[in-house]
What we know:
Blueprint: H1 2-6, E1 9-10, E2 18-19, E3 37-39, E4 45-47, H2 55-66, H3 69-73, H4 75-82, H5 85-112, H6 119-126, H7 129-158, H8 163-179, H9 182-209, H10 226-240, H11 244-248, H12 256-292, H13 297-304, H14 311-342, H15 361-377, H16 380-403, H17 415-429, H18 433-459
Antiparallel strand pairs: 1-2, 3-4
Amino acid sequence: MAGKAARTRPCRSGCPTRVPPRSRHLAPLRCRGKDERAWSGAGQLVEKLARRLGVGDAVVIGLGSMIGAGVFGVFGPAAAAADSGTGLLVGLALAGVVAYANATSSARLAARYPQSGGTYVYGRERLGEFWGYLAGWAFVVGKTASCGAMALTVGAYLWPAQARAVGVAAVVALTAVNYVGVQKAAWLTRAIVAVVLAVLAAVVVACLTGGSVEASRLGDGGYLAAGGVLTAAGLMFFAFAGYARIATLGEEVRDPARTIPRAMLIALGITFVVYAAVATAVLATLGAGVLAHSSAPLADAVRAAGASWLVPVVRVGAAVGALGSLLALILGVSRTTLAMARDRHLPHALSAVHPRFAVPHRAELAVGAVVVVLAATADLQGAIGFSSFGVLLYYAVANASAWTLTRDEGRPPRGVPAVGLLGCLTLAFALPLTSVASGTAVIAAGAAAYGVRARVLRRRGRGTGAGDGRS
Length: 471
């Protein structure tokens, strides 16, 4: 260790920090002081991201992830799975309960570990390196698939005949926005969220005042079936799963111990109220039977309510919402990629932070490139199902991690992580069989890759926990 210490040099800015002389991604950067440097899980000194975001910015980023394209299309498949209006509403409530448990557990963990990476960091610190890696892998592959789904949704609403080309163009444009700095992305996300909320409010008002609304339709359809309700809840959860973006911004929010928990719960509460209002209005206008066969339920609802003039507005709102979700998703996936690259679970070159924009530019470019491929080749329904499976497993690790917190560490009530863990696993395996099978295969492949890496390290005489920088 003495030999290594001798081969260091002072930081260029003159602060006491000493860095390796050949550090590939630190050498070009000026240290801005001790508060902007951190140690990765691999024991390496890394450049931290700029803390620019407040509670409002973090809430908007979470809303941009949740109140997006999902609300414009999820009610149809969920109604078909539930087979009744009551089943759909129960599924929505169940998804909201699981989302609340996940958000509470994630918020407590994020306040204690305010670093980029979210549950990748929490699982590593609380359960061990493998579980952190597995959570990070599930998040990256699941949310990358979700990015592809959002890109395809943009194309389907804006120009159905050229949906893939439009989706690819959207990915390129939003990757460029994120590349030049998260503050600009936050301002754009705020504008998108405002547009989408205005469109959803117009849909609710048009449906409830159109003269075709009937309260009896809220309970029509078949009887409640547990399997159908759980599947509907799993599908509805896809429309909620966005508050984790707030946790992945742990290095970019001011006062994270206060900001992250508040922002998560505020964003989730707003989202649940909006979804409940939209679901009630659409169900009361169309009924569960018509809703189950609708590919554009909100547009069909305003048409049935006699507000055909609003249909183009809904189409534009859906496209804008998909863009907002895609913007926030690329942001969150790139931050988890950054954290995993710092620990060398992904190529270390992806851990670089841009010297001017203070963002993980290589990670963002890599994520953008993969999403471009998905937008050009993937199937929309398959991407959504695969994403839901991966993200539910990610939150299962978050709840298991929160269970291990002590009271002094801010542990939530024991029932919260217990409900979250059980709910995530139940909803994940209640999804369609193809989604469960493909998701299990990809997660298993990631676990196998981890095992191969661990074996290689052991053969080199280095344990998998060696050099993790923790005492």
